[in-house]
Fold this protein.
Amino acid sequence: MANNKKLNFIVIDDSKLDCFIAEKVIRNTGKCEAIKSFIDARDALVHIGTNPGDDQAHTIILVDIQMPVMNGFEFVEAFEQLPLHITANYSIYIISSSINENDLNKVHNYASVKQFLNKPLTSNSLAILLS
Amino acid sequence: MLNSKDKIKILYIDDEPNNLNGFKAAFRFDYTIFIASDIPMAYQHLEAHPDIRVILCDQRMPDKTGVQFFEEVCEKYPNPVRMLITGYADIESVINAVNKGHIFRYIKKPWTDVDIKTSIEEGNKYYITKNELATKNKELEFVNNELSKFTYSITHDMRGPLVSVLGALELAKTMDDLNDLRELLEMMESAVIKLDEYIRNTHEYYKNKKSQIVYEEINFETLVEDLEGLFRINGKMDNVRFDVMVKQAVPFISDKVSINIILNNLLSNAFKYQRKNAADKFVAMAIEVKNNTVVIEIKDNGIGIAASHIDKIFTLFFRATAEEYGSGFGLYNVKDALNKLNGSIEVSSAVNEGTIFTVTIPGKING
């Protein structure tokens, strides 16, 4: 990814504090065009479905695993059902406090998930992701 | 003499009516006897009486041997203890009876009453042990299952808030604006409160599992006042109207710890899961003690529960919304406490309209 290009971000986490931290850390990078946070993954899915994006504006999704109603894995599965002209403009990163091996291994089963990130999100881990 | 319902149920299969009648005559005072002159009739008895504990079967019958019958029975009705009766004891059929029919005893014809009685008593002991083991295994399986849910939840529900606070601390180091810092501190506080709530709920879970029932007189009026006081201090009732009606004319004997767990969780849910912008938020509780039974109705006009979630709300760690923090313990603990008191709970709910929980608890009998 080119370093000078601005990016959009979507944060999906049922913890408001974690959304807040992610937003601050992302803004501090100076590479962010817009951020949207969702505490309910279903709302994020609706938003993505109605905002296909284009090749000028790539969006990075940071999604938590354990959330009520729709968890991170269920979100990824639903995301992968969206048409390619939408999904191509989004990259998914899973971000979780989970240290459960099943969760970590499961991440590899999803083609659309780029990487697993440990909570808390720090400017360091985000810088590595963006470089 | 033993009451007929306490007697061990025995099924005896033989194609000779004389044997059947003789058997029944000899043992009908000690056991409840079912007799069958052929295999289909034997199956009818097994179908109608799943609590038959011992099956005795003659080896030589016209359509099937006893061993063949037992081979089939093992599959469909594995619980009863099987015994083969025969006058022709060739070694081949003995081997088959043991290996294929999985029999418990081999009884030679002509039998004596003592033979049969000893065999049945032994078989019954074996039956009881086997069943106790199966029950214990089921309990173990259940506990194990909960334990793994626990382990998983601990990594999320305990580590989650800690990791959030760590992230916030890291962020705070880079912040200069005092207002921003204050906002962050407030969020850190709520993460720590979350963790504390989780630990308290875990404690309640164990307290409920381990504690013995202590019967005492329950005064619902004072119980509700105490709870209301706590809710007010914690600010849980802010901007929510609380209507209480208690009708208790007679003493009610029950376990205070369990009743408290039930009321506390149901009320705190009712206050918590309100619609944010609703103008007239209310929680109404009606308690009535009648005929040594208490019926508690807790009604709110909050966010409600979707029909697709209603079956799962009493499951450990199930959460139906992200709007408010929940540990996934609350209603599970309610159900657990109710089981202890032989109580029951019903729920009716509509999304964005509200929820009604109705709890029925019998008081201690002869209390």
Remarks:
- The interface with chain B takes residues 14-18, 20-21, 24-25, 28, 39-40, 66-69, 97-100, 119-123 of chain A (CB under 8 Å).
